[in-house]
Design a protein that fits this description.
- The termini are far apart.
- Helix content is 8%, strand content 62%.
- The longest helix has 17 residues.
- The chain has an 8-stranded antiparallel beta barrel.
- The protein contains 1 helix and 8 strands, in the order αββββββββ.
- 23% of the residues are buried.
Length: 214
């Protein structure tokens, strides 16, 4: 019996001694893709004026163009910075016994607004977002009438905007962006020839453009 056990032990030792040690194959670790750190959006918009430039005069809607930088903090939250320019003109007419009075207003608005955006996916390549921005703006108004009178005024104020929109992916790096936007500012340009300053303006608008991820 002892001889049988000793023989078995010798055989097992011989088998292990003859085996080659095979190193373990390292396993690949898949790391989830990090959110895109930066995107730049170029958009054009139309802003429907909701208030007269001066009381009981005319509303001046504007067209706008802006650039928005979007810095993703994670897959949902981002900080933004928007720089833009808006322009519009409007005309008022009054009929009197002695003739017609006509005045035309030209509005220029430049704004810079940092902000915040929350984005969530709803389908493959389709996301919805909500954002707010608050910054500064300069509103410049020029006016002239059919009697040759010309006036000009400008003023700085706070600019603000809240928007709700969608992005649609065209590729891994480009997408379409569209949004409804409520915006306004506190600037009230005053003309030395007139005692009444312009009124604070606010708008209902639409933005449409293209974004590029970096």
């Amino acid at each position: 019996m002892k001889k049988t056990a000793l023989l078995a032990a010798l055989l097992v030792s011989a088998v292990y001694a003859g085996e080659e040690l095979v190193p373990a194959t390292p396993q690949t670790v898949v790391t989830p893709a990090a959110p895109t750190p930066f995107a730049l959006e170029a958009t054009a918009g139309y802003n429907f004026a909701a208030r007269d430039i001066f009381k009981d005069t005319t509303k001046v809607s504007t067209v706008s163009a802006d650039l928005t930088g979007v810095w993703a903090q994670d897959e949902n939250n981002a900080v933004t910075l928007r720089f833009g320019y808006a322009y519009g003109d409007g005309t008022e007419r009054y009929g009197y016994d002695w003739g017609v009075y006509k005045a035309k207003y030209h509005v220029n608005n430049i704004y810079l607004m940092p902000g915040y955006r929350y984005t969530t996916p709803v389908a493959d390549g389709l996301n919805v977002f909500a954002g707010v921005n608050l910054g500064v703006n300069n509103m410049n108004i020029k006016a002239h009438d059919n009697y040759g009178i010309k006036v000009h005024g400008s003023n700085w104020g706070f600019a603000y905007a809240a928007e709700l929109g969608v992005t649609i992916d065209l590729s891994d790096t480009t997408y379409i962006v569209a949004a409804y936007q409520f915006s306004g500012n506190t600037a009230k340009p005053k003309f030395s020839e007139w005692g009444e300053p312009a009124r604070q303006q606010y708008y209902h608008g639409l933005r449409l453009g293209v974004g590029c991820k970096f």
